[in-house]
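Re: the pair you flagged

First of the two:
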Amino acid sequence: MEHEGIVTGITPSHILVRILQQSACAGCHAASLCATAEQKEKIIEVKNDGTPVRTGDKVVVTLAAKSGYKALWLTAVLPLLLIVLSLVVTTWVGASELVTGLCALLVPVIYYILLYFYRDRLKKQFTFFLKKTFVS
């Protein structure tokens, strides 16, 4: 996973890079006419490994494929499995449809709240790398 960005700040421990996160259809020629095209600015912290960059430099921020798969697992696959598991368990114990549905809605809420509280620990597991782009 790679994103182009611009260095916005440099500290002894981190380099701050502003990237423009785009939805899949943002690159479409009709994106300016479409209400679903979405773009967000994000600031990514990259560990300062001595890469010679200055504020304003264009760079490429890279996340290892292994980390990308882990992020996909944590944010999409595991919550889906938990929802299905809650549906199966509540149906198996004989709960009403209302209780089953409410449990299926409550499980991902609790899961994402837990992820939020563990965000600092998870942040250490996802390492971004920086490559300077060279304009010829």
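Second of the two:
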Amino acid sequence: MAQQISVGSSLPSNVTLKYCPYDAELQNACGIPQNLELDRFKDKKVVIVGVPGAFTPTCNNTHLPEFHAHYEDLKKKGVEEVIFVTTSDPFVMDAWGKWTKTNDKIIMAADGNGEFLSAMGLIQDLTSVGFGAVRSKRFALVADHLKVTYLGVESGHGVSVSGVKAVLEAL
């Protein structure tokens, strides 16, 4: 596994995430997965949030709702896009976005093979709880023109340094 990314590092450029773009007409149907190239963020300030799994209690009940609720606060601080990522497939992430009604505010991205998360050193092995060997650590980062300006990686359960309040304070 790669060394964990740090403030001042660049986001990996040789990986592609997948996502289903928001489409209001597809609320009860699957979207069509598209590539999400990180180059899309080269001239932007973005927040990327990594979670161990879609629909899991902390991710679904705390982490994602807080970012959704404070979306406008993030925008006021110059954030142009918010991306949630986990090692799942784009259809699960699309369904999670529809379930939580994030609509076009948060990009729900999939890193099915864990290539993006592995390149950043943000993978954890959760086989002991039946989640598999390649799962995202819980984290939030701010990248400005693809350079990491904030990184909060949780060392235990719950949401603190990866939460929206910590990100807003860092902005």
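DSSP finds five helices and nine strands in the chain.

-B.
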